[in-house]
Amino acid sequence: MAERKRRKKRDGSISVNSNSNSNNNNSNSKRRIWELRSTTVCRILGLSLDENEIRKIFRELKLDHRNQSPTAYEIIQHLAELCTSRNQYAKSVEKLLEKQFTPHRKGVGTLDPQEICAFLDRGNCGVSAENSLKLKDTPLAALIWFAARNAGSDKEIESTLSAVLQMRELQALRVYDALSRKLPPGGNVETIIDELRRATESNEKWQQKYARLEQKKDELISERESLKEEKNRFIHELEEQKRLNVRLQRRLNDFGGETAYEQIDTQKKELTVLREELKELKKEQTRLVRLTMSMSAPTPMSMSMSRVEEKSVDAVCSRSGTCNSSSSDNENCSEEPQLNGLRIAYVGGVESLEQSYKELAETLGCQFTYHSGHCERGKNAIVSIIDRNDVIFCPVDINSHNACRLVKQVCKSRGKPCCFLRSSGLSAFKKGLLNFAAGSVSKVRNVG
């Protein structure tokens, strides 16, 4: 009985160990490189490494070959034979391939080997759209590596891969043969393939530029349409303006045509002169009223005020001969103005009254020169006028401060008389001329 119990216990432990081993095998389904066929390893090495890299690995592993100068194909075959058994060389090659295919592990390393074989056989038709993008961007060596390694216990995957790859190799050889026969002497198929790749990339760039140009063309067409609409709107507005101009021209003809502008200018000048004359008359009236009141009832206060007024001489006009009389009627002064041939300059005032100023000066026998008083075009013009004339008249009501200051400075430096008038009217100018002729310096400043 004890012997039977020991046998049952031994059998139970054996069954438990066998189950645990089977579970470990299922959990670790990746195949190692020495479990793959030598032809599969040879394809992976040949596709993933070029001749220089193969020779570098051969030197690093310190391998020996019966041929002292082996070719790249002989080195690949030798490495594939070494990888058929578990050794340090196989582990080194496996580690190298794992490192090289690491960038593709997340994308392709998790796919079903059957799906990878279907993609190699039928292209995009055999896989889903999502996986097709992953497989299309993965090198062929990586596809073979992950399909063969992830197959686990399914050894038929390598047979399927071998059959599919053989068909692909035959197709590649046919393409290579067609290209090599059409190449000129000394041509290289790889060079043609590089040129085709560059041409494809250039074509893609030109397609992108073409798309941008098409978009720009659509924008220009839209802008052109908007400009057409705006042009039509401007044409419509221009027609409206033309019709309005015709109506205004008719109304202008009704008012007298082009002569209406001259009439308006003349009326403006007359209105300005009349306003100035009205101001002068009001001032004269006020002065006469005060004089009448002072003469009718003289008082000590009025007498002192009259003496103060007589003594307040603000003569802006300076002349060698002055009148000794302070009477407002200029009784003691010369009755006949001595202005014949005198050169008079008028700086400032109303520009529209220039002709009236000139006529007034010429009636008194003077030679008249006018300047508007604007200093924008330079100060030399005013200085030149002062140098060419004998006396300068400068109204302060319609004039710039710069012009008045310049006239005062230049006249002082040249020793020429200058009369500053309070008003730009004709009556103020006439009184200034008469007072200058009579030599009444005490009344020049109060003219107007």
Instruction: Write down the domain tally.
Output: 3
Radius of gyration, in Å, reads 59 Å
Strand neighbour order, sheet with most strands: 2-1-3-4
Strand content: under 5%
Extract low-pLDDT stretches: 1-5, 8-28, 297-336, 440-448
Structural class by secondary-structure content: mainly alpha
- Following the backbone from N to C, one meets helices and strands in this order, namely HHHHHHHHHHHHHEHEHEHEH
How far do the termini sit from each other? 158 Å
Largest sheet composition: 4 strands, parallel
Give the integer mean of the pLDDT values: 75
Q: How would you describe the shape?
A: rod-shaped
| Number of continuous helical runs | 17
Specify the helix fraction band.
Answer: 55-70%
Q: Would you report the number of β strands?
A: 4
Molecular structure report:
The structure is a single chain. Residues 1-5, 8-28, 297-336 and 440-448 have low confidence and may be disordered. The protein has a 4-stranded parallel β-sheet, sandwiched between helices. The protein is built from 17 helices and 4 strands. α14 packs parallel to α17. α16 (401-414) links the parallel β3 (391-395) and β4 (418-421). It has 448 residues and is mainly α.
Outline the fold blueprint:
Elements: H1 2-27, H2 38-48, H3 51-60, H4 72-82, H5 88-100, H6 105-108, H7 113-122, H8 129-136, H9 140-149, H10 156-182, H11 189-254, H12 259-296, H13 300-311, E1 343-347, H14 354-363, E2 367-371, H15 380-388, E3 391-395, H16 401-414, E4 418-421, H17 426-438
Parallel strand pairs: 1-2, 1-3, 3-4
Helix pairs in contact: 2-4, 2-9, 3-4, 7-9, 7-10, 14-17, 15-16
